[in-house]
Amino acid sequence: TTWQEAQSLLLQHSGFAEDAHLLEMDKEDALLVFENHIRQLEKDEEEEKEREKKRRKRQERKNRDGFISLLDELHEQGKLTSMSLWVELYPMLSADLRFSAMLGQPGSTPLDLFKFYVEDLKSRFHDEKKIIREILKDKNFEVQVNTTFEEFATVVCEDRKSATLDAGNVKLTYNLLLEKAEAREKERVKEETRKFKKLESAFKNLLKNIEVDYQTNWEDVRMKLEEEPDFKAITIDSERIRIFKEYQHDLEESCGHHHIRSKKKKAKKPKRKSRSRSHSESEGSERGGKKKGHRSRSLSVQSKSESSESESRKLKRKKSKKKRGRSHS
Question: Read out DSSP for 204-259?
Fold first, then answer.
């Protein structure tokens, strides 16, 4: 409100208009009173705005705390873990009033608070993994390739120290330990395979030394080798027979390949002879053709020389006749 507007309002007010003392009041004093009043109103307004701002912030904080308590409840129920996704829990969260109260207010959104909550759970993984390892050590339990998550979780949850553990971190620890168990098993199988290949190679050398062929009988081989250390090193008899048959099969295949190659060589030899013959014949025919050509050329030259000689003779005769005619005249 301006001072001019205030004066107009005062004159319209019956209490001011009928009060002689107020009407006689100095204008400067009245202006000072007006200014002080305006300043007080502005101050009251600012204080009210500040109080309203604080009330709003307090309510927004309560709304956030209420939503976080909702997340805590879901975590305690095992529905929210470090592996949870917003899209999976949204239907459950959006149905709660504590979620609706968060909508429209400034600052962190429900999605932001959810992400912060999950990240906090993930940050606890390293410490919680240590706790789980301690529990397994106390229980003398080791994760194997065939250990199920249910078996693992049962062993862990039986201990009091697991009360504060996140279900997602328990699952992540299980996955990590299972991967290590699978890697160990893979390495063990690889090492066993390498050792057995070595034993298999030594056994095949025994077969080679006694000159086994693809028609040799197994029982004869057994009698010859059963006291050999490399024979005894393969403890399963079915494996010995398998290696023996495999060795015979390889021998038979190598013999078959050799036989086929020798046949091919024999078949190629006569082809080379026929090629040489045809080559010599072609050379002979070429030579004959050349000789014939040479003879025909010599005959043609000879016939040309003979014809030229006969022509020269005719000319000589004509000349002699002319001379004779002149002499008679």
Answer: HHHHHHTT--TT--HHHHHHHHTTSHHHHTS--HHHHHHHHHHHHHHHHHHHHHHH
